[in-house]
Amino acid sequence: MKPAIAPLRRVDAVVIGTSAGGIDALATLLGGLPVPWHLPLVVVIHLPERRESRLAEVFRHRLSIPVHEAEDKAPVRGGALYFAPPSYHLSIERNRVFSLSCEPPVLWSRPSIDLLMNSAADAYGPSLAGFLLTGANPDGAEGMRRIHLAGGLTAVQDPAEAEVDTMPLAALASHAPDRVLPLRALHTLLVELNALHAD
After folding, report:
1. Terminus-to-terminus CA distance in the chain, angstroms?
2. pLDDT, block means (10 residues), the chain with 199 residues
3. Burial degree of 27 (CB within 10 A; 0-12, 13-18, 19+)
4. Is residue 139 annotated as a catalytic residue, yes or no?
5. Which entry of 12, 19, 91, 114 is annotated as an active-site residue?
6. How are strands ordered across the β-sheet holding 128-132?
7. Residue 161 has what pLDDT?
8. Which of 12, 114, 139, 165 is flagged as catalytic?
């Protein structure tokens, strides 16, 4: 008998991690988000070091919500999508502003999904949701576990659907996520969380 799925509750921010196959996955997850949009969405996607990122520009043309590259010491504001810039770790301080750093890579990655999620769990506690999608290394598994331990919501892309299942499988091995869903169902979940935030 499957355990009952806990009902959704209001969250104040959503952090999203992905790697290999992530651009297409994000296009499905974030495409067609309703307006007005209320939640801040903060994304780390692994990118090659020292390569200019056009993610914000690409998604700005695809989405109806504001899209930015996160800037050091800028506040995390609702209603927008933020991407971590390449070659910098992105974290969220307890006063809910962004922080960029050039510390060494974590699990071969800078930006690190774990660093973003760990810091966001400290800043938001139970009012945080974490989504982990397709990817080729275990970055994000520890961060999702930290969100879970802080009382937040964790949602993982179904590994059977992921272009590369290493990242979702690592998350499943680290803790029991609240939801394991295909991308279109994760999109629906995101819309439901936004509606709760608006109430």
Report:
1. 33
2. 64 96 96 95 83 81 93 97 93 97 78 96 98 95 97 97 96 95 97 88
3. middle
4. yes
5. 19
6. 67-69, 81-83, 41-45, 13-18, 128-132, 153-157, 179-181
7. 96
8. 139
Active-site annotation holds for 114:
no
pTM over 0.85: yes
**The pair of three-digit structure tokens given for residue 62, joined into one six-digit string:** 């695809």
Q: How far is residue 168's CA from residue 165's CA, in Å, rounded to a whole number?
A: 6
Q: Which long-range contacts (CB under 8 A, 24 or more apart) does 70-75 make?
A: 70/42, 70/98, 70/100, 71/98, 71/100, 72/98, 72/99, 72/100, 73/97, 73/98, 73/99, 74/98
| Distance, CA of 113 to CA of 141 (rounded, Å) | 9
Nearest alpha carbon to residue 158 among 150, 147, 169: 169
Q: What share of residues in the chain are helix, strand, coil (percent, to 5)? A: 35, 20, 45
* 89 catalytic per annotation: no
Per annotation, catalytic residue among 46, 89, 148, 197:
46
pLDDT of residue 49: 63
Per-residue model confidence (pLDDT) at position 40: 98
The residue type found at 3 is: P
